[in-house]
Amino acid sequence: MTAPATSLPARLAARLSSGAVRLFLLAAALFWLVPTLGLLVSSLRGPTDIQATGWWSVFTRPTQLTLDNYGHLLGNTEITHSLLNTVLITVPATLLVVVIGALAGYAFALLEFPGRDWLFLLLIGLLVVPIQVALIPVTDLYASLGIFGSLIGVVLFHAAFGLPFAIFLLRNFFAEIPRELLEAARLDGAGELRLFARVVLPLGGPAIASLAIFQFLWVWNDMLVALIFADSNSAPLTVALQEQTRQFGSNIDVLSTGAFVSMVIPLAVFFAFQRQFVGGMMAGALK
């Protein structure tokens, strides 16, 4: 009796799970982390050492390491103010997208209303609209509303362009919730808001966490929108660091430290919600 032939994906998965492939992937991951390690070491070296030798010289001269750069960074009011602006932009933009996206996704997935399918098709069309197309019209709109250059304008722009993907993602996730479970909750007297809060949100936790991570990372690392819609008082950290590069020779210690802080905060957020993020990705794959 001949053994059943294995499929091509199964054979590829077996080959990719071999020890040699894992060793190669580990080496590639370590190589990928070299710039991050260099930035971390540079943030712990003085400006004279940074200009004199490469960051790898710290392995032969570990006395170069110091925390003075972080003290200078905290004493730089422009950087600390821009870091606060980044938080004030990223957190509301993420919360708005998550809350509105979850409500709209629930409506598109589980409620019946006239024109629902046509509106959803229009929403899908908005996914392919690039940000650059809206820069000039939104600039005119913000100028007429008097919010150009403010934090509110930057937050609203990020929320508006994050909502199509958020609604699309959560609608597809919520649509997989068994209707029998929802009908049972309705028979127990649960209204739509209570059904959304007590049943849909807990089941959609992994997808919502994944969306929050995506939105947070996108807004935190953005510079294009902030360069156009934020003034000097509302500029986030990415814009402040870009301004600091004009004096690269005199403040390289602030640049390296600020760049590392700008990178490590979203990494900390990602690792804090890593379990929910992986759960959301696995749930989407199984569906």
Descriptive notes:
The protein has 287 residues and is mainly α. The protein has a single domain (70-286), classed as MetI-like fold (Orthogonal Bundle). It contains 16 helices and no strands. It has helices at residues 8-16, 19-32, 34-43, 47-52, 68-75, 77-110, 116-126, 131-145, 151-174, 179-187, 192-203, 205-220, 224-229, 237-244, 252-272, 274-286. Helix 6 (77-110) packs antiparallel against helix 12 (205-220), helix 9 (151-174) packs antiparallel against helix 12 (205-220) and helix 12 runs antiparallel to helix 15. The protein is globular and about 70 Å long. Residues 281-287 have low confidence and may be disordered.
Outline:
By secondary structure, this protein is mainly alpha-helical.
List the helices and strands and how they pair.
Layout: H1 8-16, H2 19-32, H3 34-43, H4 47-52, H5 68-75, H6 77-110, H7 116-126, H8 131-145, H9 151-174, H10 179-187, H11 192-203, H12 205-220, H13 224-229, H14 237-244, H15 252-272, H16 274-286
Helix pairs in contact: 3-15, 5-15, 6-9, 6-12, 6-14, 7-9, 9-12, 12-15, 12-16, 14-15
Uncertain spans = 281-287
CATH architectural category: Orthogonal Bundle
Sequence of secondary-structure elements: HHHHHHHHHHHHHHHH
Report the count of strand segments: 0
| Tally of helical segments | 16
Look at the structure and name the CATH superfamily.
MetI-like
Task: Find the structural class using helix and strand composition.
Answer: mainly alpha
Name of the top-level CATH class = Mainly Alpha
Q: What tags apply to this protein structure?
A:
287 residues; mainly alpha; MetI-like fold; 75% helix; globular
